[in-house]
Amino acid sequence: MTDSPQTQQPRRRHRWLGDLRLALMLLTRLPLPAGRSMSAPGAGDVARAAWIFPLIGILVGLCGGGIFMVASSLGLGISSATLLAMGSQILLTGALHEDGLADMADGFGGGRSRERKLDIMRDSRIGTYGVIALVLAFSLRFSALQELASNLLPISDEVDEMISHNAAITVALVLSGALSRAAMAMAWYLLPAARSDGLAASSGTVPFGAALAAVLLAVAIAILLLPGLGFVIVCATVAVLTFAVALIAYWQIRGHTGDVLGAIQQVTEIGALLAISITTLAV
Predict the structure, then answer these.
(1) Where are the alpha helices (H) located in 74-207, listed in sequence order?
(2) CA geometry: angle at 205 spanning 200 and 208, to 5°?
(3) Angstrom distances, CA of residue 112 to CA of 36, 109, 124, 125
(4) What pTM did the predictor assign?
(5) At what angle do helices 208-225 and 158-190 cross, to 10 degrees?
(6) For residue range 62-95, what is the model confidence (pLDDT) as tens digits?
(7) Among 178, 189, 181, CA closest to 246
(8) pLDDT at 40 (0 to 100)
């Protein structure tokens, strides 16, 4: 006996809302209220929810863009507004991805064997390689956003000037947020779990359909926000960086961990921001 369309539609909506809730719980630090009908997620539920990761990227990007807009309207300069926007995104995500980047840098840089690399990545302490990776990541993100805003400033009207660079920063943060989280979903699908325990292993394997849906969703957003040659450049940059980091992870530890996925998010987000800045200069 099959369910009627009237019954299937509420179930699909409930499943989508459940996936959104799981993605928010995994990728942000938002204090979500307890759902009355929300049961404990199964082993594959979190991985299945990877299709909706780009929407979380949109949310984080809008948060950063909104803070930049408020700071600019209050008279703060581009540098201060950019730092506040970056800080708001880190607060929203709990520095989850930055922590992954630092751990992966420490593990891959300081470990000689696969087992040692995994042990270092699990250590909560940060080492030299992790510090260097974070400094480079923050510096590149800051410079890309600052250059993007500065390149749009030489226009006649002061109000149009504010609107233009506010919109540019918001578009850049939304687009890079969506694409980088689709990259996480694709890498999660492509790479096996590097260890039998841990968050990545216990969350299951991303189905091909979920990974493809995440990519298509992010690409659709990119087409809407950055049509033409810019779309091609940014998407190609993210794709190349995703596969490059995934190959390095497979070579180093034979798979993925939560730290690897976080590092992929950071690398592809920075790559997208730099590519967006380049396309702006070319226009």
Answers:
(1) 78-93, 96-110, 114-122, 128-151, 158-190, 199-202
(2) 135
(3) 48, 8, 19, 18
(4) 0.89
(5) 160
(6) 999 999 999 988 989 889 999 999 999 999 999 9
(7) 189
(8) 55
